[in-house]
Amino acid sequence: MASVQITIDGITGSVPPGSTVLEAARSLGVDIPTLCDHPAIQPIGACRICLIEVEKQRGLQPACTFPVNEGMVVHTKSPKVVDARRFVLQLLFSERNHFCMFCQASGSCELQDLAYEYGLDHWEYDRAFPQMPVDASRKYFTMDHNRCILCRRCIRACDELVGNGTLGLKYRGAETRVIADMDVPFGDSTCVACGTCLQVCPVGAVLDRMSAYMGATDEVDRVKSRCTACSVGCGLELVVRDNRVIRVEGDWDAEPNKGLLCELGRFGLMYDKRKRVNKPLVKTESGWVETTWEDALGQVQQKLSGAGDALCTVVSGLASTEAAQAVMEKLPGTKAVMDGGMPAAADGIGVLDEADLFIVVQTDLTKDYQVAGFAVKRSVRHRGARLMILDDAQNGLEQLAVWKGTPEDAAHVLAVAQDAQMPVIIYDAAGAEIAKKLVDLLPNAKQVTFPGGSNAHGLASVGLDTSFTANGANAYYVLAAEAGQPDEKLMDALQKADYVVVQSSFREPWLDVAQVILPSPTAYEKNGTFITAEGCKVEVAAGVSSKLLSEVEVIERIAAGL
Amino acid sequence: MGKITLCTDWLDVCSGCHMSILDIDENILELIKHVQLLSSPVTDLKHPPKEGCDVGILTGAVSNDHQEHVAKEMRERAGVLIALGDCAVMGGICTMRNFFDTEEVLRRGYVETESTAPGQEVPRSNEIGKLLPQVKAVDQVVKVDLYIPGCPPPAKAIWYAITELLAGRTPVLTDDLLTYD
After folding, report:
1. Does domain B4-177 have CATH number 3.40.50.10490?
2. Phi, psi angles (nearest 5°) of residue A120
3. Tens of pLDDT along A450-486?
4. B180–A107: do the CB atoms touch at under 8 Å?
5. DSSP letter for each residue of A489-535
6. Is this prediction's pTM over 0.90?
7. Would you say the ipTM is above 0.90?
8. Domain A4-77 indexed as CATH 1.10.287.130
9. Does A107 lie at the interface with B, CB-CB under 8 angstroms?
């Protein structure tokens, strides 16, 4: 049967068999309220707000889990349905602390929105006032059980999307409580602090510490941009108020992350405590002093002109493709990439959700490229995909692996991979050599590769693909953006050089090696394109204005005086 | 037809809801054409007259036995009783103490507060209202005819409710007139 005919509120249409009534209603343009349901996770019918009346069915049914069948007639707005939904809301409000007036979620709360929609002007039932704990043991967000409505979105997101399965329930009935692992403090649990639970919580139970009370839904703007923390290049939304990014959320519509972010992407830059460079800084005998652009650029131009072709420009993978292009076209001397290693672009990260065998070569997906790691974890836990790891070091995915060995044991992997439908070899620069051998022997294998620099492919696209090696240059221009500690050989070379100019968002780690530090916008403040690990060109968009010169403008102004 | 008679009183409140009544601004001139205010917390006469009034407004939650008495008196004497504001409607912010034992709350408030000088005791005079074990919404003590939630309710919601009542209709709060914060 190709499709099923269904009538909802008098509108008849065809929907695919196996659809739920909720999916059918959405495709026919009929609005059914939901609370525990979330498009990214499986429905469980926990909250009962989506109750509907199905003709020839006893009682009311939850639309989110009830499957359609041929000729079904559904009423979503009958008095019986509306009364039942009000009743559900009354019960939800009677359970725990759902007083909006001192809740940070007020104005951004799906429960509150529904109460308004259904005209709840008072509560019909006595409240129990149970004493529930607040778990504030995690760095970035807290869990207030008093606000929880037990929709289980957090539990399902952690399990189905992140593949982490940290969250669960204990007790029954009104006592039911969301717990981490075997009921340990959330901060001591296996939680990876990716914040997906925070993003899906419909009420004020999971609370972001940074943005709490800083702006409700209609007080903030959302700017779609990209995470530049690694080469996965996740789509994100900058939540902005008064020219400040107050929170970062995953973009549900974006590939390859489909709404997920990792700890680094969601919180890394928000919690970066390094001191910003707001004005050009020049090192003098009495230490670092702020100066004007004219003064700083004059000094830089004079010194760099003197260096001529002895200048080496080192570009971080956090720089935009446009900035890299300006470096290539405008600056003299040699050019190199700060973050070493650049395996070829390969298959899309999407294949991770189809593969039946993962071969991870010398990379720890629980530390780097974490969102890709989530795909591996959910595939192993829920689709029965197998994971094999070739790594000398400890690997965070070990517990999920069917086998782990050193790179010398690659032959064992080959034996298993012969039978796999879709093996995927996952590696970055460190494992590239071994992976190459596997690829040659496994022609049907897909490859998912990660360059070290976030925008390494973008840099390469304008010809900037040489990793930095000490070349005896005595003047350096470092386009660092937000880069942290670079590897030792670059720091050594900078130490030895006569003159070092760094274009950086932060003072650290450049204070000891640079003579001049020029300000640079962060990823939240700049516009530009990046090319992700899977070769997609993506836009990084400024959520806020820093009033700083852009990466490109700085390079152009320097070049103009050389 | 004579003017509609109105009495208001407050229970456990911050008084923000009465401020919100005053926030109907120049409409108050229109109001007094139709309404005679008989008693309120900010006028000389504090109690609704024994003869009764047409409309009574209570703001605040019921936290002690005095407030329970005030609520019952208002209910007896008012034709229509309006619970105004989150505290009156659902208990509101006052119910924060419901998560603790009453004695614990008194001790914290009068003895253990950081700004309290050492050696203070919880006042126990019979003149002072005795805390109820739990803070209640007005409708957990007496029957309420109309609810206007909000912390405080927007002045336009109050004005809308009054004009609807004057027109002989039952006000139904929707959109931005219905708010909990």
Report:
1. no
2. -75, 105
3. 998 999 999 999 999 998 988 888 899 999 999 999 9
4. no
5. HHHHHHHHSSEEEEEESBSTTTTTT-SEEEE---TTT--EEEE-TTS
6. yes
7. yes
8. no
9. yes
